[in-house]
Amino acid sequence: MLVYTTENPCATFALGKGLAALLEPGDVICLSGDLGAGKTLFAQGIATGLGVSEGVTSPTYTILQVYDDGRLPIYHFDLYRMEQPDQLFDIGFEEYSRTDGVAIIEWADKFAAQMPDTSLWVELKMTSDEAGRMITMHPKGARYDKLCEELKLVADTCLRHGHSCI
Ligand code: ADP
Ligand code: MG
C-alpha cells in the first residue's frame, strides 16, 4: 500500500501523469472515492502522461470513452450511473479490460466483485482542509506490486516538480 497526500488539483494530476509513464498494455486502474474526490482529474493526468491530446472529460453520460491517440489506448469507464452488473457485459467491459490498452474505471468500488482480480486500486479522499486529497494505492497482484515499487521511485519527484495541470 502506498499513500500520498496532494495539496492541490495539479498535484493529483501530476501523480496520475507520473503513474502513466510506468503503465503497460493490459493494466487496469480502479478508482474509488466520492463525487469530487479527484478521480477524473487523476485519470486526466494518466491520459496526458500517455500522450492523449484530446481533452479527457468525465464519461459519466456515456459510461465509456476511448482515447487511442496516446502511447497506449485508454478505456476510461465511469460506472456512476450504472445500476446493474449485467450492464458491464453489455458495454463489453470484459473485453476492454483484457486488451492491450489501459483501463481506468471510476466508481470501480460499486462493482468491486466484477473488477479484474489483478489491478491497481486507487482510493481518493478529501482531507479535512478540503484542498488536499489522500491518495491510497492498493496493488492487487504481482504486476501491481511491481508498479507501486516503481511509482515509489518517481512519485516524490512528480509531486515536487509536476505542479502544472498540463
Ligand atoms: P471525481 O471524478 O472524483 O468526481 P473530479 O476529478 O471531477 O472528481 O473533480 C475534483 C474536483 O476537486 C476538481 O474541481 C478539483 O479542482 C477539486 N480539487 C481540489 N483540490 C484537489 C486535489 N488536491 N486533488 C484533486 N482535485 C482537487
Ligand atoms: Mg469523475
Cofactors and ligands present?
adenosine-5'-diphosphate, magnesium ion
* Radius of gyration, CA atoms, in whole angstroms: 14 Å
Straight-line distance between termini: 27 Å
Number of domains: 1
Largest sheet: 7 strands, mixed
CATH architecture: 3-Layer(aba) Sandwich
Number of helices: 5
Strand content: 15-25%
Enumerate the spans where pLDDT stays under 50 for 5 or more consecutive residues. none
Q: How much is the average pLDDT?
A: 92
CATH topology assignment:
Rossmann fold
CATH homologous superfamily heading: P-loop containing nucleotide triphosphate hydrolases
Based on DSSP secondary structure assignment, what is the total number of beta strands? 7
